[in-house]
Structures are given as C-alpha cells and as structure tokens.
Amino acid sequence: MKRIAFALAAASSAILATTPAWASSAAHALHIGSCRAQGDFAICDASGSVNHPLSLVVHVTSAPDQRISGAWDVVCSKGTGAGGKSGSFSGRTPFKRTLKMPYARPDSCTVSAGAQLGTGGSVHVWLIAWKK
C-alpha cells in the first residue's frame, strides 16, 4: 500500500513539474474580434485588443470548406516597451493558428488577422485571447 501511495505521489509531482504555470489555474477564452464576408474570393479582417493575454488564436471557417490564405499582426506592450510580430498563413478550413506574441505575459495587445477564400462562399474569422 505504501508503494502505491509513493508511486501516485511521484506521478503527481512529475505531472505538476511539466505543466505550464498558467495552466495550473483556470484559464478562460475571451472573444476579442470577428468578421464575416461572402462572395467570390471573399476577404474578412478581424481585430481586437486585450489586457494580459496568455495566448492569442485566430480561427477561420468557411462554407463550403476550402483553401484560405491570410495574414496576422500583433502589437503588445510590456512596461514602457512595445513590440510587434506578424506573419502569414494558409490552409484549409476549418483553420486555427496560435499567434506569436513579442513578449511573454504582455500588459496589453492589439491583434488583427484577415483571411481570403480560395474560391467563393462565406468566410468567418474570429480572434480568441486566453487569459487567467
């Protein structure tokens, strides 16, 4: 019985040691921006701002599912500094991408992301910030 208790304690310690600090408390998703568009090669640009994000995610869906391409931009502040990251993406809907932030645990961020359909239909882009 003591061996089982010791094994459980050791396993619990190993799990806690490999869990990110922000995951140990309840993180929640916050919707910070969205857009919708339709038509041939429709384009949709979403933007939003958030204080103290843990991570930022862009989601893209379309009807019908198809190839999309897009770009994103993140500008964050931390203390008296500010910095930015940007990039492009392509893939097939439904699509999800975690965006890079210029700082770990920034004070605030402004995010924009846009996507274009490969053919025709409707597109929906939305931005999620994960926070504590």
Overview of the molecule:
The chain is mainly beta. The chain has one domain: Jelly Rolls (Sandwich). It is built from one helix and eight strands; from the N terminus they run αββββββββ. The chain has one helix at 2-18, and strands at 28-40, 43-51, 55-63, 67-78, 81-92, 95-99, 108-117, 120-131. The strands form two sheets. It has a four-stranded antiparallel β-sheet with strand order 1-8-3-6, with no helix packed on it. It has a four-stranded antiparallel β-sheet with strand order 2-7-4-5, with no helix packed on it. β4 and β5 form a beta hairpin. It is elongated and about 45 Å long. The two termini are 38 Å apart.
Strand and helix layout:
Elements: H1 2-18, E1 28-40, E2 43-51, E3 55-63, E4 67-78, E5 81-92, E6 95-99, E7 108-117, E8 120-131
Antiparallel strand pairs: 1-8, 2-7, 3-6, 3-8, 4-5, 4-7
